[in-house]
TrEMBL record:
Top enzyme category: transferase
Originating gene: miaB
Source organism phylogeny: Bacteria, Pseudomonadati, Bacteroidota, Chitinophagia, Chitinophagales
Record protein name field: tRNA-2-methylthio-N(6)-dimethylallyladenosine synthase
Keyword vocabulary terms for this entry: 4Fe-4S, Cytoplasm, Iron, Iron-sulfur, Metal-binding, S-adenosyl-L-methionine, Transferase, tRNA processing
Cofactor annotation remark: Binds 2 [4Fe-4S] clusters. One cluster is coordinated with 3 cysteines and an exchangeable S-adenosyl-L-methionine.
Function: Catalyzes the methylthiolation of N6-(dimethylallyl)adenosine (i(6)A), leading to the formation of 2-methylthio-N6-(dimethylallyl)adenosine (ms(2)i(6)A) at position 37 in tRNAs that read codons beginning with uridine.
Catalyzed reactions per annotation: N(6)-dimethylallyladenosine(37) in tRNA + (sulfur carrier)-SH + AH2 + 2 S-adenosyl-L-methionine = 2-methylsulfanyl-N(6)-dimethylallyladenosine(37) in tRNA + (sulfur carrier)-H + 5'-deoxyadenosine + L-methionine + A + S-adenosyl-L-homocysteine + 2 H(+)
Superkingdom: Bacteria
Domain TRAM: start-end pairs: 401-465
Species the sequence originates in: Compostibacter hankyongensis
Main subcellular localisation: cytoplasm
């Protein structure tokens, strides 16, 4: 299968296990966890790590020495599930030499396939859905006793509000904080409502507490996470805009980001709140999926092309410098060449800073799988995707070039990947900026950087002396 490698929030770190976590290894057992999918899934792994730590488990980054090997899975596209199957094979090869080892599947694939994972694959001892992580210790015990253990019950209330995630793979500067779970939207292509259940918001006090603790520990940026953050709602009074303001007020030095916004739900109130607070980053991930109103209707996105474009206009009226990114699915059921042209023209009109581009992958049980045939041949999907990617690459490069000569505020996240003599960090609009280190700067500090050049994905600059 051909799929463009992306730096998507939901696939950026796909395949990577965490490294460098400082969980003391108790005399007892060790766990290993590998995560796939969206940032919410990565954040769930941090909750699982916290639950296991309380049970006296230590972490290891080497699965061959683990007593409990966990894989937190994603079902969003077929390819994501295939990757997991391959990893399960690899784990089982090691298990043959370590008979006491337990292998558990967590997350969306566990929820989608349930006990079938135990029966079909025979590679798995535990299957645990996203709302059942509190029962993990009991299930591990059950599985240790030789029984196959499963809990895939979805909940209407669970938000793990009281559990402090153990930060895995952290740079110590930026962190993700889940503010809600589930999704009620039922986009016809999407498996998430089935794997994550009903939407529910997390208690704002626990969100604020977690963000404040992060700030006190030296973190300088939080990204508030949800499948549809704009429908956050607490106690009949607190909207997402209200929550954003409360998080922004923790400290002006704490940057606030959020993801993901559904175009139908992001309100003027949210846009004005963003404009009002200097520490709320001017960047919105606003997935369009398609530029054709007919396809958008089949996708059950509940907006039209015109409505989406009006929303973009509104964002730019309120925040002229706001970065905007998107997700696009090409080759959805019945998509014609004309529909495809409409997607290209919408991309030209908007000029996205970032885009995550996929071809349609039919997911069993979704509305689209039940209602429409997956009738666009793979070669057509591939060539349309290649065209979309190429157009985006050109537009994004133009936008990057427009930044040259400007000055921006950058939060230093760490060493540049290419050179230890350079820092890297992001500006307000979420663009990666690389620049030479200078005295008095370090991870977690803010600096003004003048942009002097760029590559397709990175701005290059020089620090301005204060
Ligand atoms: N809640 C987010 C998206 C979560 S999934 C939102 O509503 O925007 C991330 C992206 O994966 C989606 O925006 C969509 O572009 C893509 N995606 C979801 N289901 C897909 C499928 N069946 N095939 C291909 N891409 C899909
Ligand atoms: Fe899926 Fe749509 Fe919900 Fe996003 S909003 S998670 S695409 S159903
Ligand atoms: Fe996330 Fe994948 Fe599940 S994108 S919600 S881990 S299906």
């Amino acid at each position: 299968m051909f799929e463009i490698p992306t730096k998507n929030i939901d696939e950026r770190r796909q395949g990577e296990a965490f490294e460098g976590v400082q969980i003391p290894v108790a005399a007892g057992k060790r766990f290993y966890i590998e995560s796939y999918g969206c940032q919410m899934n990565f954040n769930d792994s941090e909750i699982v790590a916290s639950i296991l730590q309380q049970q006296g488990y230590g972490a290891t980054v080497n699965y061959t020495e683990a007593d409990l090997v966990l894989i937190n899975t994603c079902s969003i596209r077929e390819k994501a599930e295939q990757t997991v199957r391959n990893r399960l094979q690899a784990f089982n090869t090691v298990k043959k030499e370590h008979p006491g080892m337990l292998i558990g599947v967590l997350g969306c694939m566990a929820e989608r396939l349930k006990a079938r994972l135990l029966e079909e694959e025979k590679l798995v001892d535990l299957v645990i859905g996203p709302d059942a992580y509190r029962t993990l210790p009991a299930l591990v015990e059950e599985a240790g006793g030789g029984q196959k253990a499963v809990n895939v019950l979805l909940s209407r209330e669970e938000t793990y509000a009281d559990i402090s995630p153990v930060r895995l793979d952290s740079n110590g500067v930026t962190a993700f904080v889940s503010i809600m779970r589930g999704c009620n939207n039922m986009c016809s292509f999407c498996v998430v409502p089935f794997t994550r259940g009903r939407e529910r918001s997390r208690d704002p006090e626990s969100i604020i507490r977690e963000c404040r603790e992060l700030f006190d520990r030296g973190y300088r940026e939080v990204t508030l996470l949800g499948q549809n953050v704009d429908s956050y709602y607490w106690d009949g009074t607190l909207t997402f805009a209200g929550l954003l303001a409360r998080v922004a007020e923790i400290d002006p030095l704490l940057r606030v980001r959020f993801s993901t916004s559904h175009p139908k739900d992001i309100t003027d109130e949210v846009l004005h709140t963003m404009a009002q607070y200097g520490n709320i980053c001017k960047y919105i991930h606003l997935p369009v999926q398609s530029g054709s109103t007919r396809i958008l209707q089949l996708m059950n996105r509940t907006y039209t092309r015109e409505w989406y474009l009006a929303k973009i206009k509104r964002i730019r009226e309120i925040m002229p410098d706001c970065g905007i990114s998107t997700d696009i699915i090409t080759g959805f059921c019945t998509e014609t060449e004309e529909d495809h042209r409409e997607t290209l023209s919408l991309m030209k009109t908007v000029g996205y800073d970032l885009a995550y581009m996929f071809f349609y992958s039919e997911r069993p049980g979704t509305l689209a799988a039940r209602r429409y045939a997956d009738d666009i041949p793979e070669e057509v999907k591939k060539s349309r995707l290649a065209e979309i990617v190429e157009l985006h690459r050109q537009r994004a490069l133009e936008k990057m070039q427009q930044e040259i000569g400007k000055t921006c505020l950058v939060l230093i996240e760490g060493d540049s990947k290419r050179s230890a003599g350079d820092w890297c960090g992001r500006n307000d609009q979420n663009r990666m900026v690389v620049f030479p280190k200078a005295e008095g700067t370090g991870k977690g500090t803010y600096v003004q950087v003048k942009i002097t050049g760029c590559t397709g994905a990175t701005l290059i600059g020089e620090m301005i002396k204060a």
